[in-house]
UniProtKB/TrEMBL annotation, chain A:
GO terms for cellular component: nitrate reductase complex; plasma membrane. GO terms for molecular function: electron transfer activity; heme binding; metal ion binding; nitrate reductase activity. Residues 8-231 form the NarG-like domain. Heme b binds at H58, H68, H194, H212. Pfam families: Nitrate_red_gam. The chain crosses the membrane at residues 6-28, 49-74, 94-113, 133-155, 195-222. The gene is narI. Keywords: Cell membrane, Electron transport, Heme, Iron, Membrane, Metal-binding, Nitrate assimilation, Oxidoreductase, Transmembrane, Transmembrane helix, Transport. GO terms for biological process: anaerobic electron transport chain; nitrate assimilation. InterPro entries: Heme-iron_electron_transfer, NarG-like_domain, NarG-like_sf, Nitrate_red_gam. It comes from the Bacteria. It is a multi-pass membrane protein. In the C-terminal section; belongs to the nitrate reductase gamma subunit family. In the N-terminal section; belongs to the nitrate reductase alpha subunit family. This is Nitrate reductase-like protein NarX.
Automatic annotation (TrEMBL), chain B:
Residues 12-40, 178-209, 211-240 form the 4Fe-4S ferredoxin-type domain. Residues 517-566 are annotated as: Disordered. GO terms for molecular function: 4 iron, 4 sulfur cluster binding; electron transfer activity; metal ion binding; nitrate reductase activity. It is found in: Cell envelope. PROSITE patterns: 4FE4S_FER_2 (PS51379). This is Nitrate reductase subunit beta. Its EC number is 1.7.99.4. Coiled coil: none annotated. It is an enzyme of class 1 (oxidoreductase). It comes from Glycomyces paridis. GO terms for cellular component: cell envelope; membrane; nitrate reductase complex.
Amino acid sequence: MNPTALDYLLWGALPYVVIAILVGGTVWRYRYDRFGWTTRSSQLYESRLLRIASPVFHFGLLVVIIGHVVGLLIPESWTDAVGITNDQYHVTALTLGGIAGVTTLGGIALLIWRRRTTGPVFSATTVNDKVMYLVLVAAILAGLTTTLLSAVAGLNGEHEVDYRETVSPWFRSVFILQPDVAAMSAATAAFKLHALIGLALFALFPFTRLVHAFSAPVWYLFRPYVVYRTRDREPTPAARPTRRGWS
Amino acid sequence: MAQKIGKVMAQVAMVMNLDKCIGCHTCSVTCKQAWTNRSGVEYVWFNNVETRPGQGYPRRHEDQERWQGGWRRTAAGRLKPRAGGRLKKLATIFANPKMPSLQDYYEPWTYDYEHLVTAPLGDDIPGARPRSLITGDPMRIEWSANWDDDLAGGAELASNDPIVQKIGDKVRFEYEQAFMFYLPRICEHCLNPSCVASCPSGAMYKRAEDGIVLVDQDRCRGWRMCVTGCPYKKVYFNHKTGKAEKCTLCYPRVEVGMPTVCSETCVGRLRYLGVVLYDVERVGKAAAVKDEKDLYEAQLDVFLDPDDPEVQAAAIRDGIPERWIDSARRSPVHLLAKRFRVALPLHPEYRTMPMVWYIPPLSPVVDALSETGHDGEDADNLFAAIDTLRIPVEYLAELFTAGDPGPVKDVLAKLAAMRSYMRRINLGRRPDESIAEAVGMTGADIERMYRLLALAKYDDRYVIPTAYGVDEADRGVIDEIGCSLDFEGGPGMGGMGGQVPFGEASGQPQPASVETFHALRDRQTSDGHSGPARRLNLLNWDGNGRPPGLFPDRRRPAGRDEEEAR
């Protein structure tokens, strides 16, 4: 099947638009809105549910991200080379991915329920948050659908179109500036949908509270406990000397 | 015992003389007006005054078994944040397990004043019902920052004071035997700050020049670990901006040599501000001494004597300006804490090396003695009475010396000696040097302490050098550009941007990022003083013309309206 014009638009052009928005948006946000760069935690309002739901969601999501990195970045030929059969790979990936995905979905479902039912948390929810939640949940749901469909296909012994021969090569090809549109257009509809929602999520990323993920404080592990800083020598507008005289 | 002098650093520190605190809350109110009268921090009091015994604010914050603030000494003799080290902090970053909820502080509220004028005509006088500032819903007021003020609630509430629970039957709540005193609290600006140590982002820092502990609002990511880390619970979470905020020791004032707002407005004139020089290389070891009761002495050993030429040379070597050394030599804090040893640190057992120290209160002892037929101001009678004071020494010791009554008794004896010694002078008798000797002081020392504590002249209380880089000629000059959040509808004006139908927490919230984005862009792209449109101060208006800012701008919600208003 030859790629259509739409395929070229979606899998050849759109990824670069999204990358531009993601990088440019993040730089822009960092330059102009460092003050707004925060988790916007609502723990002060409600802690009991958050203490369960938030770690469940975040840890689930971390596993999901690791799964995506492995699945998208490691070519099939490499796992073949170390003697992992395709079946072994897919059973492991689907099991782990399924568990992590369901955990993440359960976590975010609880979080959204908490957000809707706890008065102060709901009133602190912006439109921006709502759009972000919508896209995030859609991405998780679409991803779980692909997992489910793959699992069902696998159990029935059908030969499902393997994402490692379609989505993954395309994903890698995007970064070497030679998008393999043909590979992606051969993927199943579920994968295409998941990829599109994923792109939407990346495009939204810099403009939502999701940016807090970029400031994961790993550096904390390596710094001394107490931080000293000298006073700002650069005169701020407030400290800038005003001219004397009648000016 | 001359120790080698390591790196010398300067700290602007505070002493509060609890004997003079009348619990008027002026410090709290002026601080709130200056710093936390914005939405998101309605529940926050950088300065609060607690009645002791009492639970404090937030409730029972001294119960570190529960809140896990401060440092813990490990078996190997090292210090680790009590709530856990770096790995544990990162592992629990998705939901801080030890964070006080809003209910532990209190749910802030306002009153539905509008109802007073909009209520339909009726037989009843309309009332203004309390409404939560968090949800906007009607609420029952059941707690506040100061619910147990003046022992309100009696034994029922005060018996939940963690210290009362620890020392048990020493504390009486029967009306005739009850005692109380006031404890104003601000951030301690510790030498070994556990809030700074807890911040995963590295947004909190201790300023190298003056030791003020601050939160970099542009680097804070709202992980909330500092709230847990601070054992005094003096770092707060702004629930609107999602950032930590805390007492700044009014650094814009201190930098130009002015006292903090709480000090300046203190009715009892009980606060002292001054520079202390200390050896930063001794801090870690001193904070980790094995016995908690040694922490007070260990902290005193960290302070350096600014009159010592070797210390002065080391300070200059380490880049401390000479006027700071001069200031340290005249520092009332050094005098009260180190030389006279009448000021004590608050909860040294947290191992944070706090830098706001307290002179413990001498109970109304003179009248009590006089009633029993003794001379209430005779030194021997006073010394003997200290063990039976109405405020139990054990209670004060739990606050100030990790439970060691010795240093507290010494301080109270010195305060009693000062009364007795100065009475003789007031009555025209010869000064009695033996009174001073009995407490290890000289008559001259006592008179100096009397000047500082009883007369408490403004210039003696506040000895603050201007910041490095600020000209001495700028002393006392604060550039009044106003608050950058004070734009129409902005946080400083009681809103968060946009129309606000009810209260400051109602309506569709906008993320704080939207308005700060505009404010920041404005500031970065303009040459002069910028910032959003300011209101005109009517006090300065001569009644002529229409100066900019007199009327709110209709066309443009925020921004430069100065040309247009003409």
